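Q: How would the structure tokens look for this protein?
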Amino acid sequence: MSFATDGDAIARSQAGYSTAEPRDFLALLKPRVMSLVVFTALAGLLIAPNHVHPVVAVASLLAIAVGAGASGALNMWYDADIDALMTRTKTRPVPAGRVTPTEALAFGLILAVMSTLTLGVVANLLAGALLAFTILFYAIVYTMWLKRSTPQNIVIGGAAGALPPVVAYAAATGTIGVESLVLFAIIFIWTPPHFWALALVKSDEYGRAGVPMMPNVKGPARTRLEILLYTLVLAPVGALPWLMGFASAAYGVVAVVGGAAMLACAASVYRVREGDAANRIAMRMFFVSIFYLFALFAALVVENSLPPLLAIWK
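A: Here is the predicted structure in token form.
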């Protein structure tokens, strides 16, 4: 345990001394984001039409997880100045001074190289190349360019967060199948309403940090309309795995009910625009959207895991 104040930690960090503990390097990986990446990648792996050896499957998922962690570390390295200005992020390891920028950069680069090479070896070159593209897109295109230059940062940058199922499907098949592209589309369209709901509540912080989020640039009214429009597209897209025949009717029920819940939340966000009630409804949209995406991919994981498990017990 360190008894240094945040000021002492920052001073030591600026002087080149590290105060990092193992948990700080774990935080650089953005574990919550990593868990979502692994979960969506698992769905991409399981919907693949061919059998994947368990060792290859586990190694591929670990490589994708490490690649996601590399992206998180590189993001925290570059965004330390922005993170220091926002309540939600100011305690992250780099702005808090527990990890030096050089350490975060080196950590991210090493993990990026290791993860892409590992996936290329244990699975195939396409999967390794897709993982490398995902890391570069998130670290360079989104973090270094889009995030600070356009209110469409989340829309375009969301492609990086939507790619894990495609990477995992490629690891299993050596191809990019239409099924994996549908999963990509679900996450890609889900991302803007999910993050813009939070941005409505945190717009002052984003403005102070100079991040051009939609509410700060186009205004709250435009943001609420965009949330509603994206959700209107998301609801039917979320049902595509069932409609296209690679998910069961049970998934279809989850998608329809979840899509209706998302639409109800988006309509409330659009309708209620003032006071604490507006913020509460926006945060409700944010959390419901998390549960919605989890429910969709959990349904895919469960229904594609059960047949092999049942076969083992026969």
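The chain is about 80% helix and 0% strand.

Residues 20-176 form a domain with the Tetracycline Repressor; domain 2 fold (CATH 1.10.357.140).

Upvote if useful.
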